[in-house]
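Shift notes (night). Ran UPF0182 protein ESP51_13780 while the centrifuge was going.
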Amino acid sequence: MVAALVIAFFVFAGLYADVLWFSQLGFLPVLTTEWISRIVLFVVGFIAMALPVWASIQIAYRSRPVYAKLNSQLDRYQEVFEPLRRLAMFGIPVVLGVFAGVSVSSRWELTLTFLNRTPFGTTDPQFGFDVGFFVFELPYYRSIVGFASAVVLLSVLLVIATNYLYGAIRVSGREVVISKSARVQIAITAGIYLLLQAVSIWFDQYATVTETGELITGAAYTDVNATIPGRGILAAIAAVVAVLFFITAAIGRWRLPLIGTALLIVSSILIGSLYPWVVQRFQVDPSARTLEAPYIQRSIDLTRDAYGVSDIEQIPYKATTDATPGALREDAETTANIRLMDPLQISDAFAQLEQFRQYYQFPDALDVDRYEIDDRTQDTVVAVRDLNLAGLGDAQTWFNTHLVYTHGYGLVAAAGNQRSVDGQPVFMQSGIPSTGDLGEFEPRVYFGEESPDYSIVGAPEGNDPVELDYPAAGDGGQTQTTFKGDGGPKLDNVFTKLVYALKFQSEQIFLSDVVTNDSQILYDRDPIERVQKVAPYLTLDSDAYPSVVDGRIVWIVDGYTLTDQYPYSNKQSMSDAIADSEGLAPTLAFDEVNYIRNSVKATVDAYDGKVTLYAWDEEDPILQTWQKIFPTTLQPMSEMSGELMSHVRYPSDLFKVQRAVLGRYHVTDASSFYSREDAWTTPKDPTAGAGSTLLQPPYYLTMQMPGQDDPAYSLYSSFIPEARGEASRNVLRGYLAVDADAGNVDGERADGYGTLRLLTLPEDDNVPGPGQVQNKFNGDPSISAQLNILKQGQSEVINGNLLTVPVGGGLLYVQPVYVKSTGETSYPLLQKVLVAFGDNIAFEDTLDLALDVLFGGESGAEAGDNEVEPGTEPTTPPEEGAPTTPETPATPTDEVQALLNEASQVLKDKEAARVEGDWAAYGVADDRLAEIISSLLELTTATSTPTG
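Came back to this:
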């Protein structure tokens, strides 16, 4: 009893902590609704299983023959079983009931959505039912039938076992003798089971429109003309056989139901399997393109509707490959906003220049956002300065990790299209305390992606602050603070302290004198985890990003409503669709989907952890259903401030799923779709290394697409032809972009937001794809020679993201090139920019210069780095003796170009000598390379413009 009480208290402590957490956030109805639903369904499942099983055993036992003649073996079984009979007769139903209750309670979401279902207003083309029938009703009906079938099957098995044990069923040689009571009970139970199977087979007809076939998801020709009618016939046969079992219960003859059962089995083979195979093999396969066309058209139309791409604008784009002077004049704003700071590469630069202390950190992958600065939209690379408790080393005491180091500090933002003269990011918001162009805002980050598992904050008025706020400048001191918000459950009594001491298995929470009645405990602090707990019905985007909104740092999280039961819509593995070189996505609630909507925008306040859910797609029937279940948790979009709207963006995971679908479903003609003559795929990331199969991620850029009047914050990706076996042509076939800017008006979404535009390139246009362009960059002798110079002194040259921009009537490729010296405190510096247009390439110090070289000396537009900002002193000085990067002329002279070409050849000779072991030739080549480098340095020093 003591052990049971201890276990019960631990369970209670966890549940009570959940109540406190949800109550503090204002989402207690979410928890109570789930708990009540689970409890009710557990009781229903328990009774629905235990009661029929118990009744079946009781009926079998009470109707047993009193004077049955048993063989010696059954006598011994009875002797063993009889002392346990009462326990078994009640224990078996109870155990089965518990398992059934747990199973049923786990279907609480399915049950609640069925009870609160909302019509889609769209009918399926096969049966004429509303799509909501397949999404909400059919799965529920099939689960009910499946559960009932399990109950009846277990009941009939236990009835047979009980009757056999007590002599109601006897086997005498080849003869089976069944008593009347046993016959009636078994026949009725078997008849009920077959009736349930008839209903199940009948429902299976409707499931054909959501099942994945060899060609499409949904009912194709064979399904419509053979499988669906066959299942209807089989359902009727099963119902007839069930009636025969009921007749047997009355007349006592087993011949008819046994013959009927055999007929059902044979029919299921002939009608359910053989006949569809014959139709497919001998009727469909010879004329598949013609016969399947109507059903393929259904799949095309409904797939595009389910993934929200039915209204995509397809724009034929005859991309020019000739780089003529002044070609970019009409795209001046787009070229001025091309992002050069790669958020996957400059995290080390943020760390070295803005980390300041070992107990701070920045994420490996930074985020992209935009801000209105001086009446201009400025694309930025942003990150919060979060805690890194591992940096404390041996100072990681309980007091320090949970009471002192409680929060990160500040948001750091760098201009995406600018660089300093030495290649560092140009910071728009930086420093401790935080200063910059983003105005005044609360800089403390108590809720971040790397926050400690829990922190205890707050103190009585007048107490000395305990929490580290930020390090003081110069003298190594610290500024202390006390949390003033409402961010977690209060530890205002002994019982609550005991509950959390048990939850986190730390007696210090209970014993520490710093933990007072004014203390709060902050936990579950990751923004994605926080939103997931209060909105369990959502699948969340894999990337939460921080923004400064209305004087606060908030995390913005996109939430999706999904289903895999949309008729005729092609199913996609979501985890595969969103995986790319930026990283594999976490495991989702369910993997295969064929309907997706970005239905919710959520925000998490970085200071007090407040979660706000906004209904973004109020027309989504799945969201409307959940709003009926949780009516107080969602706010309308009209409550969103204009500043929040200006940072909301089209989510990348949704875009990745849509581009995966459009690879094939950009084709709207059934015949062309069947032959896959124009199937596309996303190119592999050319910067991920040889042999990599990771896809190139989509990128956010401010640009003007054909068909747009002005540049807009957009998300884009490109397409190349789908590979045929080992062959793959890396030429562009499509360019997909979506308007990601939601505007800046309170509660009003911009008209263009979410507009998808697909540029389709002609088949005879061999515009190079990202892979081809990267190969050109890597293989060009002039570029290789300059890169080898940058690599002197063991420096590492890093290729940034390869951007594709539709400007100048064609497609411009831009790739920043970073140089990173050796040493633990080194970080990448942007030194060069590679550009390509058609077959022409250029490699210069700035994008503006590279564009001018590429377009015949005058591009007609200025890039954002046409005037590089002066560099700032790095926080960590460069290592003594670290190599410096020599400057090269923007436009190589003939003499410089000749030296570069010679250097390239000397490097090849040097490597060949090393391979052959000819060390004399190796030394000669090495000496000549040193002479070339010396000459280049003299020339570049003489011709370069002095810099600050």
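Residues 871-891, 943-948 have pLDDT under 50 and may be disordered. The two ends are 80 Å apart (CA to CA).
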